[in-house]
Input
Amino acid sequence: MLTQSAYNIIEALSTVRDYIRWGASRFTAAGIWFGHGTDNAWDEATQLVLDALHLPWDTGAQALDCHLTQRERLVVYAQLEIRVKTRVPAAYLIGEACFAGWWFNVDRRVLIPRSPIAELIEQSFQPWLNSEPRHILDLCTGSGCIGISCAHV
Output
């Protein structure tokens, strides 16, 4: 059951852009901490809104002004409010996180992939390695993201 305040918000917001902006404002006002895949309120809201709408992360700007159905508004609103009320990182809510350009399934059993090592992997550890390593040890990284990303690179 929605409160009158929640109902008023859902009725006032109509586009993807509206919900991203409102979500970012809501996260900032609630003092949400970022750092598990995103580092700011706007990107976190974008990720959650697009996921709730089953749209890919690289959805073009033309989608931002699309109007949502009443059902979509309810789903997006709920997703954003869950993030505020539970403080559960977005990656756990959507079940995936990006690391070194690759998407990994994540849940509360693993640490959310986030590391400056991703940039090193994407650059093939240059300028530190002169040749490709024969072995890479991925120890205690949770999801295996470091070893998998290294293997792809």
Observations:
- The mean pLDDT is 91.
- The longest helix spans residues 70-86.
- Residues 100 and 116 are 9 Å apart (CA to CA).
